[in-house]
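Weekly modeling sync, notes
Attendees: S.R. (lead), two postdocs, one rotation student

Agenda item 3: backlog of single-chain predictions. S.R. asked that every request posted to the team notebook include the full sequence so nobody has to chase files. The rotation student volunteered to paste the first one in as an example of the format we agreed on. Action items at the bottom.

Example entry:
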Amino acid sequence: MKVELCSFTGYKIYPGHGQRYFLNAKCESAFLSKRNPRLVNWTVLCRRKHKKGQSEEIQKKRTCCAVKFQRAVTGGSLADIMSKRNQKPEVRKAQREQAIRAAKEHLEDGGSWISMSSRPTWSTQ
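Predicted structure, as returned to the notebook:
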């Protein structure tokens, strides 16, 4: 005689145990009172539904890593941004000093702070 499966719980019914379709009276009464085996916590179906007891067989899925990506922004293309980033510090420092010198000369000539501010100008193109 071969091993049968309980139609309610999914447990094995070994020869000499249980009835033809049910392992014991508990399973039979639950089935006859129309209980859903997926909602009864101790059944195989419920454990499968909630992924219990499968940790040895299945590895956890890997999550995606964020990949760094460079994009152009308004007012500067990607080439401009990368060229400024790759400049040597000495070149950048020289440009900064030159801008400071130009600003001081502008103020000495009688200019104002407002006229030399670097506000973006909107073009109608």
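Discussion: group reviewed the output briefly. Strands lie at 4-5, 12-13.
Action items: rotation student to repeat for the remaining queue; S.R. to check formatting next week.
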